[in-house]
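Section 5: illustrative case.
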């Protein structure tokens, strides 16, 4: 029976793979001849030669069949342990070839092995799997025709199968009772029989545990899949909400900026300042939620670039001097000269950590002192460990709130939130980023005396000097005067705001609301610069840019997008765009980005 299966299933695989004249195929036929003549030693030797050949996709089927035939030969020679080894190897290789007929044969042989070993439960399990595979093969053959006939035959087959299973279960049950009686009888006579009974019970327990583990593994896999689906749905939801909120926020921030530029009345000024503050607050809130989501979804990558830590901290101090002065705070730096000048690390995330901590310290401290300390903690094997500490003399944090302040949307108390504002996400981001960089943040605080945050981070030491970031050149209004810019934007409010912002700098602006018209216009008219919204009706901004670059490779094109800049900047630049401005616009960044192309 097994050789018939070989001739029917393996030959088909051989025909499809053009293996009839191959070395492995000829050796296999030779081995089958030896086997049919009951020359098992020669057959085994020949099959083992096939197995030793290098494995590739074309030889998987024949190697799998060789292992299977070796198992059958070992079974004939009563070498059951060796037989099951070869059957299992055949099953492993079969998983790569997906040959159902061959798998059915292997499973049947394994079932027979366990039956001979009197492990009827396992034998029945494999036998049941064999019948299921046979049923699948039969379904595949007859699914397109003779469905009704197959259904009737299948019903009869199932009834017969059920009858056979019931009979086998009855045999197993009978066997269990008889074996139990035998063991109890022998136990009165021999200590060895007691040991046999103990071994039998251990085997049953092991099988039960294995079954339980399989079920638990299935549950864990299902839970993992559900968690991944939920995470994906959350990311998609946040991305959509971000996009939908950024567009109207651009209108709010833009209108507030334009009205403030037009010398409003004193009575109107506080309302406009409140509007501007609210828009900036919402923008920060959206960015921080997206940042947390990106960290939690493991999409964030750690950069490894050379930098000067002392210069980095000094730049951060310069950017926050106005905030320190607003609350009448002394803002001090204590940087250890022993820290190497050139470290390797992720400057973006490090800046984000330090900025958040200093910003909090300055916000919650008035008429006090904020100190930033950076010390060399350890130096060995081209690695430096730096200790960071941010100390303030502000309002402090109650001891029972020390853990809670690192949770999302938490600021210690409702009163603190109402008085000082903020999203309550800054320390959550700090904790997650420090953990991502391999550190752990610590907090010491006392109400009315201030707070101290400290952490340690490891950096590689760079042998080459770090490159200094080029200074951001502030635009000059003269650079922008009388420039001709094409704005491609479908949102009417954004058209109005962007046009007004450009006209305030004496820039001439033409507006189109779709990519198709923009392409046709640019074939006949030249512009100094193009502002291209990414999401347009018809062809989107990226496709329009690619088509424009086919005939115009020099005119600067700046993308306008409501998606988070960190998520798609490189992708947008790959389409031929020269730079990206994220909505809602920050006026100075908006003008600076445009002006860099007119120097």
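Designed sequence:
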């Amino acid at each position: 029976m097994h050789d018939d299966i070989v001739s029917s299933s393996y030959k088909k695989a051989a025909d499809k793979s053009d293996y009839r004249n191959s070395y492995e195929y000829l050796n296999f036929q030779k081995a089958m001849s030896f086997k049919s003549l009951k020359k098992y030693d020669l057959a085994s030797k020949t099959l083992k030669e096939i197995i030793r050949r290098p494995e590739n996709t074309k030889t998987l089927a024949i190697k799998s069949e060789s292992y299977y035939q070796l198992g059958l030969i070992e079974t004939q020679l009563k070498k059951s342990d060796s037989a099951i080894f070869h059957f299992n190897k055949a099953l492993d290789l079969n998983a790569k070839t997906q040959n159902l007929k061959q798998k059915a044969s292997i499973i049947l042989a394994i079932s027979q092995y366990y039956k001979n070993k009197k492990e009827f439960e396992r034998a029945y399990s494999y036998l049941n799997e064999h019948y299921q595979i046979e049923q699948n093969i039969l379904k595949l053959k007859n699914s397109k025709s003779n469905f009704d006939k197959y259904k009737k035959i299948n019903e009869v087959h199932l009834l017969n199968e059920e009858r056979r299973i019931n009979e086998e279960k009855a045999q197993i049950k009978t066997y269990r009772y008889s074996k139990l009686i035998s063991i109890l009888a022998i136990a009165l006579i021999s200590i060895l029989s007691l040991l046999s009974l103990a071994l039998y019970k251990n085997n049953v327990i092991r099988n039960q545990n294995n079954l339980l583990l399989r079920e638990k593994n299935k549950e864990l896999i299902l839970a993992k899949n559900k968690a991944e689906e939920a995470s994906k749905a959350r990311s998609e939801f946040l991305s959509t909400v971000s996009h939908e909120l950024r567009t109207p926020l651009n209108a709010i921030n833009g209108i507030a900026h334009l009205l403030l530029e037009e010398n409003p009345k004193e009575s109107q000024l506080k309302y406009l300042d409140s509007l501007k503050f609210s828009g900036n607050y919402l923008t920060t809130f959206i960015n921080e939620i997206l940042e947390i989501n990106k960290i939690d979804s493991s999409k964030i990558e750690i950069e490894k670039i050379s930098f000067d830590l002392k210069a980095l901290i000094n730049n951060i101090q310069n950017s926050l001097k106005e905030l320190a002065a607003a609350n009448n705070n002394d803002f001090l730096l204590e940087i250890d000269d022993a820290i190497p000048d050139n470290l390797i690390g992720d400057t973006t995330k490090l800046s984000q950590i330090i900025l958040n901590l200093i910003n909090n310290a300055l916000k919650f401290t008035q008429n006090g002192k904020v100190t930033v300390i950076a010390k060399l903690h350890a130096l060995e094997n081209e690695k430096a460990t730096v200790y960071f500490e941010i100390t303030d003399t502000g309002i402090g944090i109650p001891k029972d709130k020390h853990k809670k302040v690192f949770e999302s949307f938490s600021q210690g108390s409702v009163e603190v939130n109402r008085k000082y504002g903020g999203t309550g996400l800054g320390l959550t981001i700090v904790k997650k980023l420090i953990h991502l960089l391999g550190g752990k943040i610590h907090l010491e605080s006392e109400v009315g005396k201030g707070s101290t945050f400290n952490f340690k981070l490891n950096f590689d030491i760079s042998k080459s000097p770090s490159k200094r970031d080029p200074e951001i050149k502030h635009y000059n209004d003269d650079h922008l005067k009388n420039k001709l810019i094409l704005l491609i934007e479908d949102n009417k409010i954004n058209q109005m705001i962007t046009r007004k912002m450009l006209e305030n700098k004496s820039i001439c602006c033409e507006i189109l609301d779709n990519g198709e018209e923009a392409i046709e216009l640019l074939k006949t008219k030249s512009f100094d610069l193009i502002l291209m919204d990414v999401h347009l009706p018809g062809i989107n901004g990226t496709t329009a840019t690619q088509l424009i670059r086919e005939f115009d490779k020099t005119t600067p094109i700046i993308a306008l997008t409501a998606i988070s800049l960190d998520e798609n900047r490189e992708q947008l630049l790959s389409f031929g765009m020269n730079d990206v401005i994220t909505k809602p616009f920050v006026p100075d960044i908006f003008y600076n980005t445009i002006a860099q192309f007119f120097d």
